[in-house]
Amino acid sequence: MKVRRSDRLIDMTRYLLERPHQLVSLTFFSERYESAKSSISEDLTILKRTFRTCGTGLLETVPGAAGGARFIPYITKNEANQFVNEMITALSEESRFLPGGYVYMSDLLGRPNVLRQVGRIVATQYLHETVDAVMTVATKGIPIAQGVAESLNVPFVIVRHDSQITEGSTVSVNYVSGSSQRIEKMALSTRSLKPGSRVLIVDDFMKGGGTIGGMQSLVKEFNSTVVGVAVFAEGAFEGKSKVPDYTSILKIDATTDHVEVTPGNFGDQIFTTDCMSELKK
C-alpha cells in the first residue's frame, strides 16, 4: 500500500534516528513505502536539510547501486552549553561533596536524558573518527558507555577489576592508580574485543588517570588502537596526569567546604546553528 509523503517522512525520520551510522539503502525505503527511488531521494534531501539546520545530525548520502543514506548524530553548541550549565547547577550543591575531593553524581548518571546528551556530546567529538567499540570500567562508567555507544551505534565492553567465571578466558593487566598510587588489576574477556579494533575509552570521573591508563594498556594487549578518551567529569589533581589527551564535559574542584564546577574542554567539534532561522531561509 502506497504511503503518503507526510507519513513517509515521519517514518523515515524515526527509522534513521534509531539506527545511527547504519547505511540504509534506497531500495529498502522504496520497497517499504512502495514509492519510486526518485521520490525517496527527494524525501532524503528534505531530511538532510532539516537535520543539518536543526542540529540533529548529518544525513550522509552514498551514491551507487550499494549506496543509500546514513544518519550521523551530533549536538550544537547552544544545546551542549545549555546541558552543561544545567549539570553545573545540579553538581554545585554543597550537599554533593564527598571525602577525597569527589562529588556525588550517581543520581544524574541514572537519568536517561542526561546519558543521551552525554552520548551526543562525546559522539560529536569523534564525528570524523572510525570507532569500533566503546570501553569502560565497571561500575559507574557503564551508563556513560551505553549512552556513547548508542550514539555511535557500536558495542561497548566492560573492563572488570576481578574476572568472572562466566566470561571465560581473560586478559589482565596491572596498573598504578593515579590518585592513591596503589597497584590495581583489571581484566577483559578475550571474546569482548576483536584484535585490530579502534577503541574509544569513556568513564564517569577522572583524577590522576590511572584507571584510564590501565584501560589503554589493556587495549594494546588486544593489538588494538585507542581512538580517544572521554570523561563526564575531571577532578582537580596535583601532579602529572597519566592521560595527557582527553575530552571532558565538566571540571570539578571540591574542597572541604566548597564545590566548584566549570565546563570541561569539549567544544572543538560542536556546531553552531539556529534551527528556526535556518528553516525560514
From TrEMBL:
<dbReference type="GO" id="GO:0045892">
    <property type="term" value="P:negative regulation of DNA-templated transcription"/>
</dbReference>
<dbReference type="InterPro" id="IPR000836">
    <property type="entry name" value="PRTase_dom"/>
</dbReference>
<dbReference type="Pfam" id="PF00156">
    <property type="entry name" value="Pribosyltran"/>
</dbReference>
<keyword id="KW-0805">Transcription regulation</keyword>
<keyword id="KW-0238">DNA-binding</keyword>
<feature type="domain" description="Bacterial purine repressor N-terminal">
    <location>
        <begin position="4"/>
        <end position="73"/>
    </location>
</feature>
<protein>
    <submittedName>
        <fullName>Purine operon repressor</fullName>
    </submittedName>
</protein>
<dbReference type="InterPro" id="IPR036390">
    <property type="entry name" value="WH_DNA-bd_sf"/>
</dbReference>
<dbReference type="InterPro" id="IPR010078">
    <property type="entry name" value="PurR_Bsub"/>
</dbReference>
<dbReference type="InterPro" id="IPR050118">
    <property type="entry name" value="Pur/Pyrimidine_PRTase"/>
</dbReference>
<dbReference type="InterPro" id="IPR036388">
    <property type="entry name" value="WH-like_DNA-bd_sf"/>
</dbReference>
<dbReference type="InterPro" id="IPR029057">
    <property type="entry name" value="PRTase-like"/>
</dbReference>
<dbReference type="GO" id="GO:0003677">
    <property type="term" value="F:DNA binding"/>
</dbReference>
<comment type="subunit">
    <text>Homodimer.</text>
</comment>
<feature type="domain" description="Phosphoribosyltransferase">
    <location>
        <begin position="108"/>
        <end position="256"/>
    </location>
</feature>
<keyword id="KW-0804">Transcription</keyword>
<dbReference type="InterPro" id="IPR015265">
    <property type="entry name" value="PuR_N"/>
</dbReference>
<comment type="similarity">
    <text>Belongs to the purine/pyrimidine phosphoribosyltransferase family. PurR subfamily.</text>
</comment>
<dbReference type="GO" id="GO:0045982">
    <property type="term" value="P:negative regulation of purine nucleobase metabolic process"/>
</dbReference>
<dbReference type="Pfam" id="PF09182">
    <property type="entry name" value="PuR_N"/>
</dbReference>
